[in-house]
Design brief:
Helix content is 66%, strand content 7%. By secondary structure, the chain is of the alpha+beta class.
């Protein structure tokens, strides 16, 4: 007969992660992904977690086949560490037995207070916060290998991680080259796109100098994205072309994907929707994009189609990104999908439904996240309010959006003008 008594385990760190069983036995977790999986399952309070959710969190950049193999091996290793009776596998996913209890130094005070469901992005950043104190090199290495998941958190949270970790880095370590990249992300998400552009440029130069081509290509991608937000589309295209030339001798296909994605986005903002969507689709079809990367790419394509008044095509593209955004708690992906769903409702003359989606997006922005999404939400809300006959409130929203644009030095691209064409608000 199975025991119903709680089994109290403890996760500690001493030159590596160790798990102490209820009887005091120490079990060394030799692979960092193993303790990450343990934290994800422990944070979900004995609820089943899908294999896709685990793969999305731990191996976002891997191919679908590699993700499946990695999840299977990690479950096998966790069963070996804890015992088969504590790791339960079913069609709905994986969970820890209700009797399993974990005390972990990795949990933050907020995690200890929060008794409800913790989404993968939240669990991932709880782990990063602990690593920033005790193992900053491992933290930055984990962020480098999980860029999309790392960007699912608010900018102030990323900034806090860097403030904690940077002083603890050994002088001259190669991971220090990533510091301006992450600082650029915090600037881009908040209200300083110009500073973000300079930081990404600095990170790209460092990546090229030290031969870290992942750093170089990632920095160039975000440098180009910053130029797009600043309506410097010719500069963005020049950045992409120069980046491609600098890496022309490499065989790493993921580098080519990043530049193809950037060029597609530039084409769309210049008003060439079909050509831009073709490039984004080619980038998204590559198997090395990872679950999150592919979902964001697909969500963006759905958003562009929704804004272009093609709701049926957009709805087909958004089904999977919406599900992954909900499962992962990834802010950027959720924001893209909410904005797209609202524009679909607008094109179908469902102003109230559109307004609900845009208000949801505004609530994300109000929680301290990306300001340029607040601009898009306010502009789209103005369209919905105008459609509902609430003209003065529509004008108030567009006025607020214009003030934010001026503050961020964001002008209107051709894509922005196309989105706002019903009211000629960008004239």
């Amino acid at each position: 007969m199975a025991t119903t008594e709680p089994e109290l385990w403890r996760l500690t760190y001493d030159s590596g992660f160790n798990l102490k069983s209820p009887n005091g036995e120490t079990i060394k977790l030799r692979y960092k992904k193993l303790h990450e999986l343990l934290l994800i399952l422990a944070n979900d309070n004995a609820q089943f977690v899908s294999r896709a959710e685990i793969a999305c969190t731990l191996w976002p950049e891997a191919s679908a086949h590699k993700q499946e193999v990695n999840v299977r091996q990690a479950i096998f290793q966790l069963k070996a560490a804890l015992g088969n009776h504590l790791v339960q596998v079913a069609s709905g996913g994986i969970r820890l037995a209700p009797t399993f209890k974990l005390n972990s130094d990795i949990e933050t005070e907020q995690d200890n207070e929060q008794k409800g469901h913790i989404q993968p992005v939240q669990a991932f950043h709880s782990m990063l916060a602990w690593m920033a104190e005790w193992d900053p090199l491992q933290m930055l290495d984990l962020m480098r290998s999980n860029i999309e998941m790392s960007l699912g958190a608010p900018p102030d949270q990323i900034q806090k991680l860097l403030i904690t970790a940077i002083p603890r880095l050994p002088v001259g370590h190669d991971l220090q080259g990533w510091v301006p990249f992450w600082r650029g992300q915090t600037r881009l998400m908040s209200e300083d796109i110009v500073s973000a552009r300079h930081l990404f440029s600095s990170a790209a130069e460092e990546g090229l100098k030290c031969g870290d081509y992942t750093l170089f290509s990632s920095s160039v991608l975000w440098l180009g994205s910053s130029e797009i937000l600043l309506t410097r589309l010719d500069a963005a295209r020049r950045v992409a072309k120069e980046g491609q030339q600098a890496l022309s001798g490499l065989t790493d296909s993921s580098v080519g994907i990043r530049f193809k994605h950037l060029l597609g986005t530039i084409m769309i903002h210049q008003g060439h929707l079909n050509e831009g969507l073709r490039l984004l689709e080619e980038a998204g079809n590559d198997s090395e994009g990872g679950i999150l990367g592919r979902a964001i790419n697909q969500g963006l394509r759905g958003l562009y189609l929704a804004c272009a008044g093609k709701p049926n095509a957009a709805r087909l593209l958004l089904e999977r990104p919406s599900l992954i955004g909900s499962e992962s708690g990834h802010f950027r992906l959720q924001s893209i999908c909410e904005l797209a769903e609202g524009h679909i409702a607008l094109s179908e003359r469902s102003g109230e439904q559109a307004l609900r989606a845009f208000k949801q997006l505004l609530s994300y922005s109000a929680s301290g996240k990306e300001t340029h999404f607040e601009i898009y939400a306010r502009e789209a809300s103005a369209l919905a309010l105008w459609q509902l006959g609430e003209r003065q409130e529509a004008l108030n929203q567009i006025s607020s959006a214009r003030d934010l644009r001026r503050r961020l030095h964001m002008s209107y691209t051709d894509w922005d003008k196309m989105r706002l064409k019903p009211l000629a608000l960008a004239s």
